[in-house]
Amino acid sequence: TSAPSSDTASFLRCLTVHLPPQVLYTSTSPSYTSVLESSIKNLLFVSPATPTPLAIITATNASHVQATVRCGALHGVRVRPRSGGHDYEGLSYRSLTTARPFAVVDLAALRTVRVDAGRRKAWVGSGATLGELYYAIANHSKRLGFPGGLGPTVGLGGHLSGGGFGLLLRKHGLAADHVVDAVMVDAKGRLLDRDAMGEDVFWAIRGGGGGSFGVVLYWKLRLVRVPATVTVFTVHRARNNQSATALLAKWQRVAPKLPRDVFLRVVLQSQDAQFQSLYLGKRTGLVSTMARRFPELGVRAQDCIQMTWIESVLYFAFYGTGEPMELLLDRGTKPERYFKAKSDYVSEPIPSHVWESVWSWLLVDGAGLLILDPYGGRMGRVAPSATPFPHRQELYNLQYYGFWFENGTEVSEKHMGWIRGLHLEMEPYVSKNPRGAYVNYRDLDLGVNGGDGVSGYEKARVWGEMYFKANFERLAAVKAMVGPHDFFRNEQSIPPLPSSR
Ligand code: FDA
Hints:
With 501 residues, the chain is of the alpha+beta class. The protein has helices at 8-18, 32-37, 62-75, 130-140, 156-161, 169-172, 194-197, 199-204, 244-254, 283-293, 309-318, 352-361, 409-426, 453-468, 471-482; strands at 24-26, 55-58, 78-82, 102-106, 113-116, 121-125, 144-145, 179-185, 191-192, 215-222, 224-225, 230-238, 262-269, 272-279, 305-307, 338-346, 369-374, 396-404.
């Protein structure tokens, strides 16, 4: 059932016939490179060695996407959707090999956000960023919000496709939990809404990872209520003189069980634990909850700042108060850093001696940082099969993040070595059988697609079950239903379930 071999010349001719010239960029177009790099976030993939697309289509309406998919299906050229370009492994715009040419349909221009505050709904284009969504919501109502991630430049297309979580997670769950309809172009080039795509596909696109089932153009979101006043704090506790290890040990037990109005995450860097909190209520409530549930952290009233929800979005995105709301509209076009991330889920508190070892890892040359995001609250009340995202019962998500600014093999090997080494060492202390990972923190070290049929499926199960556990098989069954030719395929896309299984 593999796709026909590609005929790139016919594909490009087909695009020329069916698309207006201003949305089509081929490698000979003068602006090809600037369009390609317009939303790349990871400098690792800005290099002449990176296999790049045959063509980039900067779609401004559905018919451009449909024409691209139809030309691709006809001439054997696969299409990768790109919304915000934040994929950690760059899968929306690069491939690992030159063997299979592909095209990118870039949705950055499909970024309208239409808020209906009365009905608490919004229709958003996949190319809109989280910042644009939050900005539009706040402009309509100070009492509504959306439970998405922290990075304002992240694209909604990829974010919702992979689940998406941020500081409202314990109160409201994932971003994808709040999708109530979607409009998608499938592998045949058809434009389908929720009714037309059916509940299986609608289930799959809300967390099964981007780039597998079709190109989602629009999403209808349910907005959530936020109070007029929220409270935030950031307190730093050092390893040596403020017993950060003991605080971490306690945090693991407390943070996933706090009232769901409190989100308390930790960022570990160097020898410092930074505790960051968002509370959906006033200062007094947060101070008293902390005093009751986590007195050792020593949070004082003067550490806590009251603000509106949208100000808290700015606070956590830019680490300051008083920033103008318009900063949320900055799509931040230039990639600034090289980075590599990995993730784990923690089901049992990690022993203190392991944290001591983690502190040592954070001291070495090439060390990055760790982010600990607590679950619990609303998350624990959603069935693991309700959406493809299965990690509902975990204590917390652990993200390892290595980053650097200089080019060069030696430098990148040093940082890659750090993150891979620490990830390996943590294996005994994190979720098992299989070890969990979050698909939106894409990591090709977990495995990549190869082959078709049963062997391809078996190979993909290795990383697929890390991201999706038992939901992986259902995702593969949906893929077999909508795309037996596996048209929407990348290094970690869902393969079709072989009929022999
Ligand atoms: P991109 O366009 O690169 O797409 C990602 C994947 O989805 C690709 O495989 C792509 O082909 C596919 N895809 C894109 N658009 C699609 C569409 N319309 N239809 C179908 N498939 C599509 N995550 C989180 O949960 N919480 C957070 O707080 C953050 N914060 C954060 C900050 C920063 C700086 C980065 C770089 C990343 C994050 N993330 C995150 C991770 C983020 O959620 C993840 O990388 C998303 O997939 C990015 O979506 P984009 O549309 O930007 O990526």
